[in-house]
Design a protein that fits this description.
The protein is α+β, with helices and mostly antiparallel strands. It contains 3 helices and 4 strands, in the order ααβαβββ. The longest helix has 14 residues. The radius of gyration is 24 Å and the shape is elongated. It starts with a helix and ends with a strand. The model has no long low-confidence stretch (mean pLDDT 77).
């Protein structure tokens, strides 16, 4: 009987993936999971998220465009004489940094 009940639960989840466990009556299972010591983060886990971003030091940038060819996601443009980074597209991988002959690129926390 337990196997059939579990199969019905699985079928319910597959048929309606947009529904949460709370909506289909598994609130006590969620509470048990949330209170389980196995669900706690490991002791060495970071306590906060740090976002990284690519910064261009405008006083050093010559607008040569070398960084553009190194960027795997095409997040860097040189509209005038200084490189500009599309922060929404940039993944802060740092691939462009060694390509800059002026050393004008750096990854910072932000």
């Amino acid at each position: 009987m337990g196997l059939l009940r579990n199969m019905k639960t699985l079928v319910d989840l597959v048929r309606a993936p947009q529904r949460t466990l709370e909506e289909i009556g598994h609130k006590r299972h969620l509470e048990a999971l949330r209170s389980s010591p196995h669900m706690a983060p490991p002791p060495n886990a970071p306590r906060e998220i740090h976002y990284m971003r690519l910064e261009v030091e405008e006083s050093a940038c010559t607008g040569c465009g070398a960084c553009i060819t190194m960027c795997p996601v095409d997040a860097i443009q040189v509209p005038e004489t200084i490189a500009k980074v599309d922060q929404d597209q940039c993944v802060a991988c740092g691939a462009c940094i060694p390509g800059c002959p002026e050393g004008a690129l750096d990854i910072t926390e932000g």
